[in-house]
Amino acid sequence: MTENTTSSTSPETAEASAASEPTAERRDEVANRLVDRFAIWSGVAGLIPVPVVDAVAVGGLQIQMVRRLSQIYEVAFSENRGKALVASLAGSMIPTTSGIGAASVLKAVPIIGTLTAGFVMPALSAGATYAIGKAFVQHFESGGTLLDFNPPDYREFIRKQKEMWDSRSRPSQSESSSDKATGATATSS
Q1: CA distances from 16 to 26, 115, 152 (A)
Q2: Among 149, 79, 93, which residue's Cα sits nearest to residue 124?
Q3: Which of 36, 78, 81, 91 is nearest to 61 (CA)?
Q4: Does the global pTM surpass 0.85?
Q5: 3-class secondary structure per residue, 43-85
Q6: What does the alpha-carbon distance between residue 108 and residue 48 come to, in Å, rounded to a whole number?
């Protein structure tokens, strides 16, 4: 019976085990893929149509991501410490977290609120999760632990990660500027 339970390990556990083997490069690759995957899952959780439940689901995914990252980097994980750090990092991203809360509550407004939040909430959730994950990857890569993680030290890093995520998920500024210029020229002709 024990043999059956050991053979059914989750993919994340298998990745964590594989990552602890050879090189730091392999471990970083696994960690970065994990962050990308959790960012996508957070975006999907942002689609939950029930106000507040979506935000709670995203928070749970972020905690789980930190747990998995700590396994990959062989860092002791404490549920309470992990929750406090994720909440503190999320708090340092006030515009994003306020937007997540507002988008979640907006789902209570029939039709228009649900549709609007359906576009906004996934992007905000995925971007916040991505930035938080990248901050923990950088911290764990440098030999840090949950005990010496100081969220204010990562404010600028998180801002840059969020900008990077935003640029991945929407067209560049120059494309939209040239489209506007083309549209303006076409309307004036």
Answers
A1: 11, 38, 28
A2: 93
A3: 36
A4: no
A5: HHHCCCCCCCHHHHHHHHHHHHHHHHHHHHCCCCCCHHHHHHH
A6: 12
List, in order, residues 6 or more apart from 82 with CB less than 8 Å away.
63, 66, 67, 70, 146
Residues 60-112 have pLDDT tens digits of 999 999 999 999 999 999 888 888 888 777 765 545 444 555 556 556 666 66
Is the distance from CB of 131 to CB of 162 less than 8 angstroms? yes
Alpha-carbon radius of gyration of the chain: 19
Per-residue tokens: 156: 């600028």
Show the tokens assigned to 68: 């998995």
Q: How much is the average pLDDT of 23-29?
A: 87
